[in-house]
From TrEMBL, chain A:
Belongs to the metallo-dependent hydrolases superfamily. NagA family. The keyword Metal-binding applies. Keywords: Carbohydrate metabolism, Hydrolase, Metal-binding. Pathway: Amino-sugar metabolism; N-acetylneuraminate degradation. InterPro entries: Amidohydro-rel (IPR006680), GlcNAc_6-P_deAcase (IPR003764), Metal-dep_hydrolase_composite (IPR011059), Metal_Hydrolase (IPR032466). The lineage of its organism: Eukaryota, Metazoa, Chordata, Craniata, Vertebrata. Its EC number is 3.5.1.25. The gene is Amdhd2. The active site is at D294. It comes from Cettia cetti. This is N-acetylglucosamine-6-phosphate deacetylase. One of its GO terms (biological process) is negative regulation of UDP-N-acetylglucosamine biosynthetic process. It catalyses: N-acetyl-D-glucosamine 6-phosphate + H2O = D-glucosamine 6-phosphate + acetate.
UniProtKB/TrEMBL annotation, chain B:
Its EC number is 3.5.99.6. InterPro entries: Glc/Gal-6P_isomerase, Glucosamine6P_isomerase, Glucosamine6P_isomerase_CS, NagB/RpiA_transferase-like. GO terms for cellular component: cytoplasm. Homohexamer. GO terms for biological process: carbohydrate metabolic process; glucosamine catabolic process; N-acetylglucosamine catabolic process; N-acetylneuraminate catabolic process. Catalyzes the reversible conversion of alpha-D-glucosamine 6-phosphate (GlcN-6P) into beta-D-fructose 6-phosphate (Fru-6P) and ammonium ion, a regulatory reaction step in de novo uridine diphosphate-N-acetyl-alpha-D-glucosamine (UDP-GlcNAc) biosynthesis via hexosamine pathway. Deamination is coupled to aldo-keto isomerization mediating the metabolic flux from UDP-GlcNAc toward Fru-6P. At high ammonium level can drive amination and isomerization of Fru-6P toward hexosamines and UDP-GlcNAc synthesis. PROSITE patterns: GLC_GALNAC_ISOMERASE (PS01161). This is Glucosamine-6-phosphate isomerase. NCBIfam families: nagB. It is found in: Cytoplasm. Pfam families: Glucosamine_iso. It comes from Cettia cetti.
Length: 409, 254
C-alpha cells in the first residue's frame, strides 16, 4: 500500500498477528514502529493518512518491552569490578550477549572495590543507547563499599568503608566521579548516611538499601531522605522479625512519603530466595518487585572458578559461592530464566512477570516515559516471546538485534 | 423491507456482518470501482471516545483500507455548512452510497436526524435532542454540560439516496421505535419510518427488539428466515467470481 506521510519519510513497520503487553494486559493489537519509537497508528491513519511500509507476521508471539537489568556484575568471563586493559571490550561483549536473554538496557554493577578500581573503571562506563552492538547502558550501579561489615556477603572486608568523617565528600573521593552512576547501594544505619542519601538523590542518583543490619525505623528514615530501592531483598540484611521487620518491613511500611513507591530487587533464580519467601514479598507489595540477575562473570560459562572483584567464586550448576565457603556470591541465572522462574513460583500472570523485568525497573529509574512499556512514543525496545516466555527475538529502537536460531539452541 | 429476526445481539451482529460481506463480494470492487459503505456520524474529534477512535478501534484497524478512502465529517471544520455540502459532493463523486448501515435511537432517529427532522433533509448541522444528550453523557463522565449539543449528520434524504439501507436494532428499549418504524405510518417524528419508501431496506434485529410488534408480523418474517438465510451463505471468492460478475445471485427479491 502506498504510504503518504506528512510528518516523516522514515519507513513504518507494522508487527501483526501478535499479542502486545499494554496497559498491564496482553492485547491482540498490532505494534507500529517508526524511527525507533512506538507509533500511534490512529494518528497516522487520520492525521497523516499514512500506512505501513512493511508488515511483519509475528506468528502469534507475545511482544513485551525489553528487560531492564539493574544489577549485573558481569558475565561470559567479564567482571565489571576488575580494572583490566580491555575493560571496554569486556562491557561490549556482555552488552551484546545479554540480548539473547531479552535484556535491552542494563546497569553494569561494581561490587565493593578499592578506590583505585573505581577511578580506573568508572570513566570507561558511559551511558549509551543500545542497538545491534548490544544492550543500552543506563549507568553504573555501585554496590558498596559503604556497607555493613556484618552483612558484607561476598564483598571483601578490607575494602569496606564508612563516610562518617566527610559524608558525601568521602563518597565522592572514593568513587572519583558520579557522572555515569545511576544507582548506589549503601547501608543506612551508617553515621551520616541521611546526608549522603540526600546529596545522591539531589543528583538524580537512585539510592538503594542493602548489605545492612538496619532496623525498620532506620530504613524508613533513609526512605524519607530519598532512598527508593532495596538491593536483593532478604539477602544481606536482617531477617524479617515480627517485632522489628528490618528493611523487609519497608514493603508494607506506612511511613513511605506520599506519592512515592519503594522498589525491591529480587534474584528469582530459585537459590537466593526460597519460592515461599518470593511469594510472600510479591503478595505483600506486587507493584514494587524488580527482577534482577545479580549475574557474575561466570554467567554463560561452564562451571568452575571465576572472579567477582577481589574474590574468587566457584560455580556449580546454578549455585555460586565464595570459593571454599557456603556464602552466596551473585548468580549465573539469566534474566529470562528469572522471569520464567518468578512466574512459575508465584503463579502470577504472564503480564505481571514481564512487567517485573521491564516496567518496574523503568519506574524505579524514572524512565518509564521512554523505556519499559510499549506506549506510543516510547523507545521501541521490545522482545518477541513464545507462550512459555522464551525469548525468540530482541529488538532495540525498532531494529532486530537478536533472533533465536531456528535450529533451536 | 426484509425483517430479519435473530435470537440475540451476537447472532444479529453475525448475520449483518455476513450480509455485508456477501454484498461486497457480489459487487466485486476493484481499483477505481469502490464499494461505498455509509455509516452514521458521531461525536466530535479529539475526544477519546470520538467517532474517529471508535471507527479506528472497531473497524479500520482490522481491515486494510487506505486512509484516503475514509471520509468522516469533521466537527472541527471552520465552516460547518461548507463541510456538510462538501460531504454530499464526495458521496456523489464516489458514485453514491452502495449500502448504508445504521442503527436507530429509542426515539426512532436515524443518524442524528432527531424527531421533527425533514424526511428529505441533507447533510447538515443538527441540534441534538435531550434524549440523545443524556444517552451520550456516559462518554463525558456523566457531566451533561460537557456533552456537545450539536452534531454534523447525514440527512434522511441523503440516506434514502443509498442503493440499499440496513438498519440494526437490538434490545428491548428499541422495541417501540421499531414498531413505529415498520408498523405505523411514515412520520417525521420517527424518522426511520422514511425507509418504508425505500426500495431496498433490511432491518436486522434480535428477539427483544420485536416486543412491541404484532405477533402476526413477527411470525410472518420468522417464517421467511429460511429464504433470508440464503443471503448470508458463503459465496465464491472474488477471484472465482470472474465471469459471473453482473449476474444476480439473489434467489428472490421483495
Amino acid at each position: 500500500m502506498p504510504s503518504n506521510k506528512s510528518v516523516s519519510d522514515a519507513p513504518i513497520v507494522q508487527f501483526t498477528n501478535c499479542r502486545i503487553l499494554r496497559d498491564h494486559q496482553l492485547q491482540r493489537e498490532d505494534l507500529w514502529v517508526r524511527e525507533g519509537k512506538i507509533l500511534n497508528p490512529e494518528k497516522l491513519f487520520f492525521d497523516e493518512k499514512g500506512s505501513a511500509d512493511v508488515q511483519l507476521n509475528c506468528k502469534d508471539s507475545i511482544i513485551a518491552p525489553g528487560f531492564i537489568d539493574v544489577q549485573i556484575n558481569g558475565g561470559f568471563g567479564v567482571d565489571f569490578s576488575l580494572a583490566t586493559d580491555d575493560f571496554k571490550s569486556g562491557i561490549d561483549l556482555v552488552s551484546r550477549k545479554i540480548l539473547s536473554h531479552g535484556v535491552t538496557s542494563f546497569c553494569p554493577t561494581l561490587v565493593t572495590s578499592p578506590p583505585s578500581v573505581y577511578h580506573q573503571v568508572l570513566p570507561q562506563i558511559s551511558v549509551r543507547n543500545g542497538g545491534a552492538h548490544g544492550a543500552g547502558i543506563l549507568g553504573a550501579h555501585l554496590e558498596g563499599p559503604f556497607i555493613s561489615k556484618e552483612k558484607k556477603g561476598a564483598h571483601p572486608e578490607h575494602c569496606l568503608r564508612t563516610f562518617e568523617a566527610g559524608a558525601f565528600q568521602d563518597l565522592l573521593a572514593t568513587y572519583g566521579s558520579l557522572n555515569c552512576v545511576q544507582i548506589v547501594t549503601l547501608a543506612p544505619e551508617m553515621r551520616r548516611s541521611n546526608e549522603v542519601i540526600r546529596e545522591l538523590t539531589k543528583r538524580g542518583i537512585c539510592v538503594s538499601l542493602g548489605h545492612s543490619v538496619a532496623n525498620l525505623s532506620q530504613a524508613e528514615e533513609a526512605v524519607q531522605h530519598g532512598a527508593t530501592f532495596i538491593t536483593h531483598l532478604f539477602n544481606a540484611m536482617l531477617p524479617f522479625h515480627h517485632r522489628d521487620p528490618g528493611i523487609v518491613g519497608l514493603l508494607t511500611s506506612d511511613k513511605i512519603p506520599a506519592g512515592r513507591r519503594v522498589f525491591y530487587g529480587m534474584i528469582s533464580d530459585g537459590i537466593h530466595t526460597n519460592p515461599a519467601a518470593l511469594r510472600i514479598a510479591h503478595r505483600a507489595h506486587p507493584k514494587g518487585l524488580v527482577l534482577v540477575t545479580d549475574a557474575i562473570a561466570g554467567m554463560g560459562l561452564a562451571p568452575g572458578r571465576h572472579t567477582l572483584g577481589q574474590q574468587v567464586v566457584e560455580i556449580d550448576g546454578l549455585n555460586t559461592y565464595i570459593a571454599g565457603t557456603k556464602t552466596l556470591s551473585g548468580s549465573v541465572a539469566t534474566m529470562d530464566t528469572c522471569v520464567r522462574h518468578f512466574q512459575e513460583a508465584t503463579g502470577c500472570s504472564v503480564e505481571t512477570a514481564l512487567e517485573a523485568a521491564s516496567l518496574h525497573p523503568a519506574q524505579l529509574l524514572g524512565i518509564e516515559h521512554k523505556k519499559g512499556t510499549l506506549n506510543y512514543d516510547s523507545d521501541a525496545d521490545f522482545l518477541m516471546l513464545n507462550d512459555s516466555l522464551y525469548v525468540q527475538a530482541t529488538y532495540i529502537a525498532g531494529e532486530e538485534v537478536w533472533r533465536q536460531d531456528v535450529s533451536g539452541m | 423491507m426484509k425483517l430479519i429476526i435473530l435470537e440475540n445481539y451476537s447472532q444479529a451482529s453475525e448475520w449483518a456482518a455476513k450480509y455485508i460481506r456477501n454484498r461486497i463480494v457480489q459487487f466485486g470492487p476493484g481499483p477505481g470501482r469502490f464499494f461505498t459503505l455509509g455509516l452514521p456520524t458521531g461525536l466530535p474529534r479529539d475526544h477519546p471516545e470520538s467517532y474517529h477512535s471508535f471507527m479506528w478501534n472497531n473497524f479500520f484497524k482490522h481491515i486494510d483500507i487506505s486512509p484516503e478512502n475514509v471520509h468522516i465529517l469533521d466537527g472541527n471544520a471552520p465552516d460547518l455548512q461548507a463541510e456538510c455540502n462538501a460531504f454530499e459532493e464526495k458521496i456523489k463523486a464516489a458514485g453514491g452510497i452502495e449500502l448504508f448501515v445504521g442503527g436507530i435511537g429509542p426515539d426512532g432517529h436515524i443518524a442524528f436526524n432527531e424527531p421533527g427532522s425533514s424526511l428529505v433533509s441533507r447533510t447538515r448541522v443538527k441540534t441534538l435532542a435531550m434524549d440523545t444528550i443524556l444517552a451520550n453523557a456516559r462518554f463525558f463522565d456523566g457531566d451533561l454540560s460537557k456533552v456537545p449539543t450539536m452534531a454534523l449528520t447525514v440527512g434522511v434524504g441523503t440516506v434514502m439516496d443509498a442503493r440499499e439501507v440496513m438498519i440494526l436494532i437490538t434490545g428491548a428499549h428499541k422495541a417501540f421505535a421499531l414498531y413505529k418504524a415498520i408498523e405505523d405510518g411514515v412520520n417525521h417524528m420517527w424518522t426511520v419510518s422514511a425507509f418504508q419508501q425505500h426500495p431496498n431496506t433490511v432491518f436486522v434485529c434480535d428477539e427483544d427488539a420485536t416486543l412491541e410488534l404484532k405477533v402476526k408480523t413477527v411470525k410472518y418474517f420468522k417464517g421467511l428466515m429460511l429464504v433470508h438465510n440464503k443471503l448470508v451463505e458463503p459465496l465464491y471468492s472474488m477471484k472465482e467470481m470472474g465471469a459471473e460478475r453482473g449476474q444476480s445471485k439473489k434467489p428472490y427479491s421483495d
